[in-house]
Every structure is written in C-alpha cells, then in structure tokens.
C-alpha cells in the first residue's frame, strides 16, 4: 500500500483569481451582507414590537428572518475575510463544520417554508377554527419540529463525508465548503456518498414540497369557491409573497442539490449557490415588505422605532 497523506487544510478558490477583481467582489458581497442583516433584523424588531404582527404568520416570518441572518453569516464573512487577508485557508474541521451548519440551516428553511404554507392553509380553509388550531403551544411545536428536523438532516451526509480520504489536492473550487466541490477532492469511491446526498436532499425537498403543494391545492380549491372576485383576490394576496419565496428558494436548491455530483459544472453551482445563499436572504424581507400591508404599516409607524 502506498503512503497516504491526510489533508488538514483546504484552500477556497472563491470567484476569481484576478487580483483587480477582488475589491469589486468584496464590495458587492459586503453590501449584500450588510443589507441582508439589517433587513432581517428590522423584520424581527417589527414582529417583536408591534402587537398587530404578533400572530403565527409573522412569528414564522421572524423565525425565517432569524435563520436568514445565520444562513448568510455561515459563508459570506469567511469569503470577505479571505479576500481582505489574501489567505484562502480553511481547516478540515472548519470546512466540515461550515458544511454541517450550512446544510442544517438550508434544510430548516425548507421546513419553515412548509410550516408557513400550512399556516396559510389553516387561515384560508379553516378561518373560523384558525385561532383555536394555531395556539401558542402548537406554533411553538411547529417551530421546534422545523428546527430539529433541519438539525438532524446533515448528520448522515456528514458522517459519510468524514469516512472519505482526502489525500490531495486540497483546493476547493468554490467560495465555501459545499458538498459537490469537496467530493471532487476525495480519494476512492464516492458513489455511496453521492447517493446518500441525493437521497437526503430529495427527502428534504419532497417532504417539504409535499406539504406546500398540498396546502396550496386546498387553498386554491377553497379560493375558487368564493363567489366574490374581490374576496378571492384578497385571500390569494396573503399567499403571493410566500409563493414567490418558495419558487426562488426551491428552484435554486433543487437545481444544485438534486444534481450534486462531481460531473456538475462547478461554475454553474457557484452562481446558483449565490442565488440561494446570498440573494434570496436579501430579497425575502423586501418581498414580504412590499407585498404585505401589515408589515408596510408597521414600517411606517414611527412608534416601532422609538
């Protein structure tokens, strides 16, 4: 048996090797990070301070904003630090930890979006029982289940990942430690690991999408039976923001993780990763603010910021 060298450090390539491009990249992602954190903190502050927003729908939204802050903080601060310092190093343990947390938060977002779809289903299809069903204890239970389900999601994929040998090279062609570029560096047979990633990703996406699609099927059926066109538009308007977020997030996530193989184009994966890990957390508060009357009223209420 030849001697094998265990990799202890990885080097993240980032987006470009061009020195002149680094400051532009740094500025763009710094602005994205600052805007995203401030937007989501504003949503959390609004929900916690405005009594009219302390409803299940907005409690779920505040949880989503809390998650988005951590979601973008897992990757972008490390990217910005690497650009400024000129060092692209990340330890093996740090890389695995980053992938675990990123996967955990990504799966939790899927389950939170499914929970929000269920909340809309109860509100529209069972309006008279909504208050009785969505009590504080039940809302808390839904939130805890969403976060715990997300927490356990990366356990099996990470366990299979740490069973692989990394004997060189150690250059990760990405801006964070994602599954696909890491598998390119593994020594030996990675087919079982790819299969596990595919199954786990498929389960998370399909299980949450099943709740979302099922909820909106009954929502649509209920709305179509409303005789007044004005009432139909009013009922459906409460769902449009959630649907917009679902389409963007699930579209990009599905594109990346359902086809997470070493043959996937790495440049395409980078660009799609930016969409769901940076752009989507920045756009979500904007979408909910522009399309939601209650949030807009809370934003214009100066008492919320005193």
Which key phrases capture this entry?
74% helix, mainly alpha, 306 residues, single chain, 12 helices, globular, 3-stranded mixed β-sheet
How would you summarize this macromolecular structure in one to three sentences?
This protein has 306 residues and is mainly alpha-helical.
Note the topology.
Blueprint (H helix, E strand, L loop, with lengths): L8 E4 L6 H31 L6 H18 L2 H10 L3 E3 H34 L4 H4 L2 H17 L2 H8 L8 E2 L6 H7 L5 H34 L4 H29 L8 H26 L1 H8 L6
Parallel strand pairs: 1-3
Antiparallel strand pairs: 1-2
Shape: globular
Mean pLDDT: 84
Q: In angstroms, what is the radius of gyration?
A: 21 Å
Strand order of the largest sheet: 2-1-3
Strand content: under 5%
Number of strands: 3
Order of helices and strands: EHHHEHHHHEHHHHH
Give the biggest sheet.
3 strands, mixed
Number of helices: 12
Distance between the termini: 70 Å
Roughly what percent helix? over 70%
Please mark out the parts with pLDDT under 50 across 5 or more consecutive residues, or reply none: 302-306
Question: Pairing-aware structural class of the strands and helices?
Answer: mainly alpha
Word description of this protein:
The protein has 306 residues and is mostly helical. The chain has twelve helices and three strands; from the N terminus they run E-H-H-H-E-H-H-H-H-E-H-H-H-H-H. The chain has helices spanning 19-49, 56-73, 76-85, 92-125, 130-133, 136-152, 155-162, 179-185, 191-224, 229-257, 266-291, 293-300, and strands at 9-12, 89-91, 171-172. It has a three-stranded mixed sheet with strand order 2-1-3. Helix 2 (56-73) runs antiparallel to helix 4 (92-125), helix 4 packs antiparallel against helix 10 (229-257) and helix 10 runs antiparallel to helix 11 (266-291). The model is unreliable at 302-306 (pLDDT under 50).
């Amino acid at each position: 048996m030849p001697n094998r060298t265990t990799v202890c450090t990885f080097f993240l390539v980032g987006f470009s090797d061009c020195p002149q491009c680094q400051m532009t990249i740094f500025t763009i992602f710094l602005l994205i990070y600052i805007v995203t954190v401030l937007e989501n903190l504003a949503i959390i502050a609004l929900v916690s301070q405005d009594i009219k927003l302390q409803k299940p729908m907005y409690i779920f939204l505040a949880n989503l904003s809390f998650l988005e802050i951590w979601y973008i903080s897992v990757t972008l601060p490390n990217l910005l630090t690497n650009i400024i310092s000129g060092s692209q190093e990340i330890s093996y343990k740090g890389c695995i930890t980053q992938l675990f947390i990123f996967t955990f938060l990504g799966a939790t977002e899927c389950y939170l979006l499914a929970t929000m779809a269920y909340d809309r289903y109860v509100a529209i299809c069972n309006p008279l029982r909504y208050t009785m069903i969505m009590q504080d204890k039940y809302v808390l239970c839904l939130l805890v289940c969403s976060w715990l389900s997300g927490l356990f999601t990366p356990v099996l994929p990470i366990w299979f990942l740490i069973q692989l040998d990394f004997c060189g090279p150690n250059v990760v062609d990405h801006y964070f430690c994602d599954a696909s570029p890491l598998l390119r560096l593994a020594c030996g047979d990675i087919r079982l690991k790819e299969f596990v990633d595919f199954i786990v990703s498929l389960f998370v996406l399909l299980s949450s999408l099943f709740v979302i699609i099922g909820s909106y099927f009954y929502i649509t059926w209920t709305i179509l039976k409303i005789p007044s066109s004005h009432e139909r538009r009013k009922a459906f308007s409460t769902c449009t923001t959630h649907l917009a977020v679902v389409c963007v997030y699930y579209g990009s996530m599905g594109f990346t993780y359902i086809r997470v193989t070493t043959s996937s184009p790495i440049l395409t994966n980078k660009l799609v990763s930016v969409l769901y890990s940076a752009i989507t957390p920045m756009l979500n508060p904007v979408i909910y603010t522009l399309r939601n009357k209650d949030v807009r009223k809370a934003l214009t209420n100066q008492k919320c910021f005193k």
